[in-house]
Amino acid sequence: MKNKRIIVIGGSTAGPKVAAKSKRMNPNSEILLFTKGDVVSYSACGLPYYLSGVIDDIKKLIIRTPEEFEKDGIQVFLNHTCTKILPNSKEVIVNDKKYSYDDLVLATGGVPVVPRIKNIKLENVFYLRVLSDGVDIKRVMEKAKSVLIIGFGYIALEAAEAFLKNNIKVTVVENHPHIFSFLDREIGDFIKDHVLLTQSNNLNIITNDLVTEFLGDKKFMGAKTRNGHKIEADFCLICAGVRPNVSLAKGCGIDIGVTGAIKVDKKMRTNLPNIWAVGDCAEKHCLVTTLPTHAALGSIANKEGRCCAINLNGGNEQFEGVLGSAVTKFFDYTVGVTGITEHRAREVASKVNIEPISTIVTKHDKARYMPDSNPIKIKLTADRRSGRILGAQGVGLGDVDKRINVITSALQKQMTVRELLNLDLTYAPPTSGAIDPILTACYELQKLIDA
Amino acid sequence: MKNKRIIVIGGSTAGPKVAAKSKRMNPNSEILLFTKGDVVSYSACGLPYYLSGVIDDIKKLIIRTPEEFEKDGIQVFLNHTCTKILPNSKEVIVNDKKYSYDDLVLATGGVPVVPRIKNIKLENVFYLRVLSDGVDIKRVMEKAKSVLIIGFGYIALEAAEAFLKNNIKVTVVENHPHIFSFLDREIGDFIKDHVLLTQSNNLNIITNDLVTEFLGDKKFMGAKTRNGHKIEADFCLICAGVRPNVSLAKGCGIDIGVTGAIKVDKKMRTNLPNIWAVGDCAEKHCLVTTLPTHAALGSIANKEGRCCAINLNGGNEQFEGVLGSAVTKFFDYTVGVTGITEHRAREVASKVNIEPISTIVTKHDKARYMPDSNPIKIKLTADRRSGRILGAQGVGLGDVDKRINVITSALQKQMTVRELLNLDLTYAPPTSGAIDPILTACYELQKLIDA
């Protein structure tokens, strides 16, 4: 293959993955990686564990240093912002300088959703996206006694644990009727009940409400909500979600999908020749509904980066889509999901021709007689007509994500509940009961399907 | 449905399952359950945890008492041995008395393999199959300082942990070249290395050797081996495997399969009308090779019992087969398997037309930067020609069985390695790395397949 120049914009996960794998596949290619940040190749997902103190040094979140990339022949440009793409001349403008490319890979990631709040521009108001956010929050935590968290999803829950472990009182304001609003309400309520039960003195959750105004002059002092709550806190963490960072792409005629992310085909190509997009800025397809979806996760970014690099270098790889799998822990409590929720299934039912049906079972994660066994709850959703599984959600003190992951391969192969009834899962008293909770859920759901 | 009399022979897992589910499905049926033991419906798998002291009361291993069965209208006959089946008259002889049946279910379980050892009939020589074995061993453990274990598979490993926790020195003699002989040699060696590393002062493993003679007059005092070892020990546990208990079935013309277990079809029917077989005494089919196989596990017994009960009561259920899934723990170390090993794949390669190819990867079970992450080893085997996965084995201090169970549904749907490359597994730093170890194994194996 002739030597070509690949330019990668973005330095978190997908970008570095494309760069590293491309170089391994074709050592003669010239690879330039531009990032507006001052580090590359890091795990943003690890930030809550840096805040909690579980990880003592933020450098541990750096997977590969610029020096390591340079050693492999990849040119890394820190603090370099790409402001324009010139697709016709195959050039980009970075820090006011033009660079030509043979292939351009956009890995511009996501940006935090900024809620509409009066007086939002104050000191000690944070997001948790990049390593410097972690450093800034950690510094404030040293003297803080209380925090307001806006929104309550995965990152918020992980951050809440970090704050509680450091004796910082937490108030959460969530505008949905329940926390973990992307999961079904019962699941969100189980989490809330558990969290409040174990942390009642130090954690207050306000749902169905909206922060409308921040208090404070220069520094954040607290907030007012629509329903009249007044919350005092030493700092604020905004976890209102992430949207794809597509401003650069938009400016040059790259198609944006219905989710607001860059439209890509299964090879990770955009509509413009030789321009690719990967990671949080690229649109995904849900393998369950076949509809476009949003999923911002390092695990997916890695897979897309791998796929893109193979195709960039003469291969023929396809990234078919995602299942919406996710997991998190709150102390010993685990929350996991794969596929779509019942709520989502009802939303798209007529569009994709399904009739959702669900069951929730509660069962011990290990043999009941083992002293360290714990009850977990599994919600399983299927299409009543075809019997096909649509999704699984799980919460509990025990081993939840093992059960959720069994369903990932089942979803990818469009397995029915019936096909899972006799699944030969591993069994031993310290790891599961003779009838695994996920099978109990299948039995119950099959009964409903047959009824 | 007309009232019928179902006679069940066997009281451990599969028999009680058939009885209980049949009664639920058809409350008018008359159900008689005969067992030669003095308990029914118990978890033999829990015995090692009773020995260790993790379970303080052996009664906790009883899932349902005879009284509970009686309350549901199921007649339970303890200490009743069935000695003959009269298929023509549809009768059985139990404790010298005739009982007629409409349907007969054989759940006669397994019996321990008794190795050829001189002077084997001594006091303090045990097997670990039924609850009374547990009680007897526990009593001897109180004064014992050392034990000889013959054979080293799952139960032996679990029992060894129990003995070590109670300050009893363990010597193991295994006649295969490696322990865990039903797994590939590397895996057996990993386990051995780990076990010896952590327990070197109290555990001695002798492989490639055979106990030929027991020492002692009335009580077990020790043993001699073929290779000249002389082992002193206070008691002996024989874990040389289990074979199906089919003497009753053989006596009346029921077909026995190549594995020595009772031949059954997918509905759990034997060759004789109205006679069924379930659990450890019934032959299984391996879903990977389609060949008959042996698997004695409570999880499978439960599924077969469910299938049989449904068919007994007018339903139409099939039990397709097993994957050979198994798991165990040794302190914090986990060993898991599903599908077939590379060794087994080579054995049957020409018969089932496969060309086995394998990879072993070592990777952390959680994000590498998490202080409690641990390296695990995954061995993945596939058929080079079709790319179809044949099996997975895993060992390590971390979360091994989660990865193994992902492969169970993949095996059941005959997924290829390529289909798994982009599997959307759950990801969060406390539960896995951004690239899960099982996916790393898939990447490596796909490279070998493509090479």
What does this protein structure show overall?
Two copies of one chain form a homodimer. With 451 residues, the first copy, chain A, is an alpha/beta fold. In chain A, 27% of the residues lie in helices and 25% in strands. Chain A contains twelve helices and 25 strands. Chain A has helices spanning 14-25, 47-52, 66-71, 131-141, 154-165, 185-199, 247-250, 298-312, 342-352, 401-412, 417-420, 437-450; strands at 5-9, 30-34, 74-77, 82-86, 91-94, 97-100, 103-106, 110-112, 125-126, 146-150, 169-173, 203-206, 211-215, 222-225, 230-232, 235-238, 242-244, 275-277, 284-285, 292-293, 326-330, 333-339, 356-364, 375-383, 389-396. In chain A, the strands form seven sheets. In chain A, strands 3-2-1-7-18 form a five-stranded parallel sheet. In chain A, strands 9-16-10-11-12 form a five-stranded parallel sheet, covered by helices on one side. Chain A has a five-stranded antiparallel sheet with strand order 21-22-25-24-23, with helices on both faces. In chain A, β21 (326-330) and β22 form a beta hairpin. In chain A, α1 (14-25) packs parallel to α8 (298-312). The longest helix of chain A is centred in the middle third of the chain and has 15 residues, at 185-199. Chain A is globular, with a radius of gyration of 23 Å. The model of chain A has no long low-confidence stretch (mean pLDDT 96). Chains A and B meet through α8, β21, β22 and α10 of A and α8, β21, β22 and α10 of B.
